[in-house]
Amino acid sequence: MAGGDELKLLGSWLSPFATRVKLALALKGLSYAEVEEDLCNKSELLLRSNPVHKKVPVLIHNGTPVCESVIIMQYIDEAFAGAGPSLLPLDPHERAVARFWASYIDEELVIPWVRSFRGTTEEEKSEGLKQAFAAVENLEGALRECSKGKGSFFGGDRIGLVDVTLGSLLTWAHAAEVMSGTRIFDPARTPLLAAWMVRFDELDVTKAVMPDVGRMVEFKTKQARALAAARASDSK
After folding, report:
1. Would you say residue 122 lies in a domain?
2. Is the pLDDT of residue 1 over 60?
3. CATH assignment of the domain containing 123
């Protein structure tokens, strides 16, 4: 890598948060060493690099770790400002708006969406899905505003921080539709986002980086069966 920079990414193929970082690195045209972590048996390197949360992803740049996916993407944008397109707009207010929506995705969409299929009761799952759909409707309005009438991406005519943050979830969205019939980006409710999803899926960088939907469905199906078997055994 130019300048002697060494990049190492600690991640997991099924983590959308690690996928975000891979997308950002690919957009910047940066090479890196990828370390696949076993999340059931975390490496000493991961535990040492992220001692607070002990989670992936972690980007190690010349021996120095950076944690949390959205923070890592902003770090990449700043540390390698001369490489590839910028993930954040130049205007300070537009940058603040992009950071707001990136944070909103994790706090208001991801958390309840996960609850919708990991909740312990049907009521909890239903409420999680309801909140996730409400968040998606707000993101429909955000896309309308941020795209400045162009309607292509949150970054206008190019993808940026918000696109990558949300786009990293699309393998999970496709897998959820296959497994449960749930369409988180439904053309009837959020037509702009549904069209955005198609555009994002067709990007060369997306095709190169995103996890395979079939592999994800297979993994989650096996995981669900194992969990159901464990619960049945515990109830005996």
Report:
1. yes
2. no
3. 1.20.1050.10
